[in-house]
């Protein structure tokens, strides 16, 4: 039974979020001496941004982490819809290129604007590499799952 493309795209977004999360796990295994967050997505900053937008007072670090995880899994699925729209409008590989560009533009602008991080030009090289690699894993997984599900008639 064929599902509507938005369902397929949201599921692909969820798979992309899982790939991004797995990329962080793999990097932690490869860099066991690294202390702290691997990049700003892996830090408390996403939760702090949400807490500040929602005017939540006195949020603990654990609550920032939990809010950040909820944000990652919700926007990760929702961004899958954007890939689905692009896929329908321009096809691959352009859909994934535009999709990846959208994600990186959002990352490079929203963290400094809302999270008060330094601009990307001031990010440490390892943090920038992690950011690019994890987002590439996300984009690749979204595109692959969306394409595979479409081919299977899901």
How would you characterize this protein structure?
With 154 residues, the chain is mostly helical. The protein has one domain. The chain has helices spanning 5-30, 45-53, 61-90, 94-115, 125-151. α1 (5-30) runs antiparallel to α5, α2 (45-53) crosses α3 (61-90) and α4 (94-115) packs across α5 (125-151). The protein is globular and about 45 Å long. The N and C termini lie close together (6 Å).
Domain tally: 1
Oligomer: single chain
User: Averaged pLDDT, please?
Assistant: 89
Order of helices and strands: HHHHH
Shape: globular
What gyration radius follows from the Cα positions, in whole Å? Answer: 16 Å
Low-confidence residue ranges: none
Structural class label: mainly alpha
With helices defined by DSSP (H or I, 4 residues minimum), what is the helix count? 5
Number of strands: 0
Q: What is the strand content?
A: under 5%
Major β-sheet profile? none
First and last CA, distance? 6 Å
Percent helix, as a range, is over 70%
């Amino acid at each position: 039974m064929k599902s509507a493309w938005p369902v397929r795209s949201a599921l692909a977004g969820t798979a992309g979020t899982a790939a991004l999360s797995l990329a962080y796990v793999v990097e932690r295994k490869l860099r066991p001496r690294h202390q702290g967050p691997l990049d700003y997505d892996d830090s408390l900053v996403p939760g702090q941004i949400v807490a500040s937008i929602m005017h939540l007072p006195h949020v603990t670090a654990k609550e920032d982490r939990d809010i950040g995880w909820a944000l990652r899994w919700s926007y990760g699925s929702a961004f899958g819809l954007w890939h689905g729209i692009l896929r329908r409008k321009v096809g691959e590989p352009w859909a994934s290129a535009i999709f990846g560009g959208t994600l990186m533009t959002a990352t490079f602008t929203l963290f400094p604007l809302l999270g008060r991080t330094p601009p990307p030009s001031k990010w440490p090289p390892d943090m920038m590499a992690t950011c690019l690699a994890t987002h590439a894993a996300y984009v690749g997984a979204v595109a692959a799952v969306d394409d595979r599900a479409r081919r299977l008639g899901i």
